[in-house]
Design goal:
single chain, 173 residues, alpha+beta, four-stranded mixed sheet, 5 helices
Amino acid sequence: MKLFALLASALIVLFPASSSSQSRLRDITVQGIPLTPARWVATVSKKLDAVLVYPNPVYWTGDGAASGIVSVQFQTDAQNRPIALSLARSSRNRILDRFGMRAIERLGPLPVMPIAFKPGQRFRANIVYAASYDEYNRQLVILRKEEAARRMAAIASPDSVAAVVSLGAGTAS
């Protein structure tokens, strides 16, 4: 009998009743690591690349596919969807401009904004459409020069410069 009482006591100590074990549990809060502005831009660029479409050659007139840089400026709403889209730079081709604007519209909800971005932040997506890899590389040189000029302007007036989402679209097939 003493052995049974000793075993029962040991079991109670090792495996307490469920009501007392629940009182020892604590709430656990899990937080994700916030994105840095650079990682946010990379994530949005990857998402934009996935929805970007090079216009079908049926749209072209003349001697072949067009090339150009389309820059679309936008803000985000409370659900981080792009809103207030405007053409910040035309490729001088209405079809490319239209396809660039549609790509931004198709993005859907974007990742949670880094705390470094202020409410109402303006973003600019630079979309490169190229008919060849040489043309693509030439346009990237243009974008890099413009970005360097933008950075210099940001030193004088950081509020006037929007965060930039730059990416290169695929070439015509």
